[in-house]
Design a protein that fits this description.
Shape: globular
Oligomer: single chain
CATH superfamily: Nucleotidyltransferases  domain 2
CATH topology: Four Helix Bundle (Hemerythrin (Met), subunit A)
Largest sheet: none
Order of helices and strands: HHHHHH
Number of strands: 0
Length: 138
C-alpha cells in the first residue's frame, strides 16, 4: 500500500471516530459533517491507491467516486449525494438553522451506520481481506 494511501486512511479513521464521539455528545450537525469527511478521505485513499495520483481537491463524493471508478447502485449514489451536502451546509450560518431541523439523533445515527458500511467496503477495495465485500454492506 502506498504511503499516501495510509495517510488518507489514518485521517478517515480519525474522522469516523470523531463522528461517533459527536453522536454520543448529541452534536448531530457535526456528526454528519464528519461522516462526509470520512467518506471523502476514504475515496481519496482509493484514488491514491488505484490511480497513483494526488486526489483532486473536491468535496463532492459522487464525483470522487466516479474518479475512483467505484461501481455503485442508484441508492448508493443518492447516499453520497446527500452526504456531500453536509460539507457545504455546515460552513455557512444561514444553512445551519435549516440543518438543525433535519439533523436529529435518528438521522445522525443512521448516517453513522451507513458511513461505517461504506468505510469498510472502500477499505476492502484498498486492502483486500480487511473488510466484508460490497454485498455485505446492506
Amino acid at each position: 500500500m502506498k504511503s499516501h494511501t495510509k495517510e488518507w486512511l489514518f485521517f478517515a479513521d480519525n474522522d469516523l471516530q470523531t463522528a461517533r464521539s459527536l453522536l454520543k455528545s448529541r452534536r448531530y450537525i457535526y456528526t454528519l459533517f464528519c461522516c462526509q469527511q470520512t467518506i471523502e478521505k476514504m475515496l481519496k485513499a482509493l484514488i491514491t491507491e488505484r490511480k497513483d495520483i494526488v486526489p483532486p481537491r473536491l468535496h463532492n463524493l459522487v464525483r470522487l467516486a466516479q474518479i475512483a471508478e467505484l461501481v455503485m447502485s442508484n441508492q448508493e449514489i443518492e447516499f453520497l449525494d446527500r452526504l456531500s451536502d453536509f460539507y457545504i451546509k455546515t460552513r455557512y450560518p444561514e444553512t445551519i438553522a435549516k440543518l438543525q431541523v433535519i439533523a436529529k439523533r435518528e438521522r445522525a445515527l443512521a448516517t453513522v451506520k451507513e458511513t461505517e458500511r461504506y468505510y469498510l467496503w472502500i477499505k476492502s477495495l484498498i486492502e483486500p481481506g480487511s473488510a466484508p465485500p460490497k454485498q455485505s454492506r446492506r
